[in-house]
Design goal:
Length: 174
């Protein structure tokens, strides 16, 4: 919400806290801020922060606050309850390559046929939604119904609705 004010102040860079966060979190948050900043700079009259908040709601790990930006009396700086807020989406995996038309996904949570997924596309605020229709074992190339990340670097093959680049993130809607 404060992006226009920050940019209009002349701020040249923002630091996004990412210590102890997953690559899914960092990639997603950076993509949201990059899009918000670019959109405001390209068309300030029509800037609408609500579409960015909708995306942040899918990936946030704790409550949102402006810290001391608008209110010097803000007491909500620490989250002591340990509550996690991204209850509807989770890190599904990361594209690591292709085997012909099949994407090779390094999985991070259980995936199964029928799961609703979203591809986080760099420089695009709206993710690309799809359902997993088919998956293949990484070594056997046989059809599988589900895969779990019980082994380090567990991978699976699947078809994606768009051609993705290496390291693009996919998330699963719970």
């Amino acid at each position: 919400k404060e992006i226009p004010e920050i940019i209009d102040m002349g701020v040249d860079s923002l630091k996004i806290e990412g210590r102890l966060k997953t690559e899914y979190y960092v990639a997603s948050i950076v993509n949201v801020y990059r899009n918000a900043i670019d959109d405001y700079k390209n068309n300030p009259e029509n800037y609408d922060y609500t579409k960015y908040l909708k995306e942040i709601e899918k990936i946030k790990t704790r409550g949102l606050t402006t810290f001391y930006f608008n209110d010097r009396n803000n007491k909500d700086i620490q989250e002591y309850s340990g509550k996690q807020y991204n209850e509807q989406y989770q890190f599904g995996g990361k594209v690591v390559g292709y085997d012909g038309e099949k994407a090779i996904i390094d999985i991070r949570n259980r995936l199964e046929i029928g799961d609703t997924m979203e591809i986080i596309v760099p420089h695009q605020i709206e993710p690309v939604e799809f359902k997993i229709e088919k998956m293949w074992g990484i070594d056997t190339d046989e059809d599988i119904e589900a895969v779990s990340p019980g082994v380090k670097d567990q991978k699976v093959k699947m078809t994606l609705p768009i051609k993705c680049e290496k390291d693009w993130i996919i998330r699963r809607k719970k």
